[in-house]
Write a structure and sequence with these properties.
14 strands; 357 residues; alpha/beta; Isopropylmalate Dehydrogenase; binds nicotinamide-adenine-dinucleotide; ten-stranded mixed beta sheet; Rossmann fold
């Protein structure tokens, strides 16, 4: 039996999480593995109920589970709260509390969506790379931070990009280990021409690489990497980078796959793991049953692989997604016209009904 903590979150979070739950129930039925789901509130939903974006009880539930599944958090109704009270702070607190420092974002183009990207088909056909983003350090957590009033009408906003040797070492080890299971190439992305924190990043990644001589290492500045991702994304196998750069580059990479609604993620620590779609709460389409649930469903596939080592189950979920897309079913975000347009919940039903072991 595996214990899963579920945080549906806000906006489209509950809509896509529900489709992920259908898939978990289905794989439970056919694999005879028991998945025990327990729920708690996170983000805006938690603020509305408890006046804080995550409670100690919710954090304890996550810590006592074998894996955590999140929908998405955030929304305009909570945008004016101070930073520590905002929905995203709940997410950051959860990541920090579980020390899930390695965020994996696989970028994979399904053959039936090759013509959907804004890039030319030949640029993205067969695309398959992995972004390994450092998730519990860098500018999102560094201090000093805040907004100070200097004089009347003049304020000063400060955030701090900070990395230590152990933080860089552990993410580098993860990246090189994953590369060994892939095409054995790591690209480290930084801004070492300007930032001291990036100079340390590059030095430590280079040192860790000595233990992985069967893996090729190259370096790119983040601005160059952003350009290369749309020029020739197939050159990449594993990209390892900081929290901020990874956040931005993975949204850019999402568009190579056709939609941000297609991109799953796993955040791994030494003891805990969080699975969630890369996208946010999409307030513009909330409540319309039109979100793409595939990122959430593929996040379940990652959970089966990385947390439970159920490789056949993970593959059966990916195959079901692939088959549903190949049959022409599309949510609005990936509908190029002429396809069979379906809602979020129908896409969930179609995928779960195609799962077989
Ligand atoms: P977003 O990812 O929510 O939306 C960006 C665009 O992509 C929107 O047009 C949206 O409709 C579309 N989109 C996103 N997911 C989709 C899906 N599954 N299917 C179809 N279309 C989809 O990003 P945003 O608009 O910058 O942020 C909205 C809110 O979400 C903000 O409050 C932000 O802080 C929060 N956010 C949360 C997370 C998270 O929970 N991990 C991540 C990013 C943003």
């Amino acid at each position: 039996m595996y214990k899963i903590a579920l945080f549906r979150g806000d906006g489209i979070g509950p809509e896509v999480a529900e489709q992920a739950v259908k898939v978990i129930r289905k794989v439970g039925e056919i694999s005879h593995v028991v998945f025990d789901l327990s729920e708690a509130l996170l983000g805006g939903a938690s603020i509305d109920e408890y006046e804080r974006p995550v409670t100690p009880e919710a954090l304890a539930l996550a810590r006592n589970s074998d894996a955590v599944l999140i929908g998405a958090v955030g929304g305009p109704q909570w945008d004016n709260l101070e930073t520590s009270m905002r929905p995203e702070s709940g997410l950051l607190e959860l990541r920090r509390s579980l020390e899930t420092y390695a965020n994996l974002r696989p970028v994979h183009v399904f053959p039936s969506l090759e013509n959907h990207s804004t890039l030319k088909e030949e640029v993205i056909r067969g695309l398959d790379f992995l972004i390994v983003r450092e998730l519990t350090g860098g500018i999102y957590f560094g201090t000093p931070r805040g907004i100070q009033k200097l004089t009347e009408g003049v304020e000063r906003g400060v955030n701090t990009e900070v990395y230590t040797t152990p933080q860089i070492e552990r993410i580098a080890h993860r990246a090189f280990s994953f590369a060994r299971k892939r095409r054995r190439k790591v690209t480290s992305v930084d801004k070492a021409n300007i930032l001291e924190s990036s100079q340390l990043w590059r030095k430590v990644v280079t040192r860790v690489h000595r233990q992985y001589q069967d893996v090729t290492l190259d370096y790119r500045y983040v601005d160059d990497c952003a350009m290369q991702l749309v020029r020739n994304p197939k050159q990449f196998d594993v990209i390892v980078t900081t929290n901020l750069f990874g956040d931005i580059l993975s949204d850019e990479s999402a568009m190579l796959t056709g939609s941000i609604g297609m991109l799953p993620s796993a955040s791994l620590g030494d003891r805990h793991a969080i699975y969630e779609p890369v996208h946010g709460s999409a307030p513009d389409i909330t409540g319309k049953d039109m979100a793409n649930p595939i990122a959430a469903i593929l996040s379940v596939a990652m959970m089966m692989e990385y947390s439970f080592h159920l490789l056949d189950v993970a593959k059966s979920i990916e195959d079901a997604v692939s088959r549903t897309l190949a049959e022409g079913y599309r949510t609005a975000d990936i509908d190029g016209g002429g396809a069979k347009r379906v809602s979020c919940s129908v896409m969930g039903d179609l995928i779960q009904s195609r799962i077989g072991l």
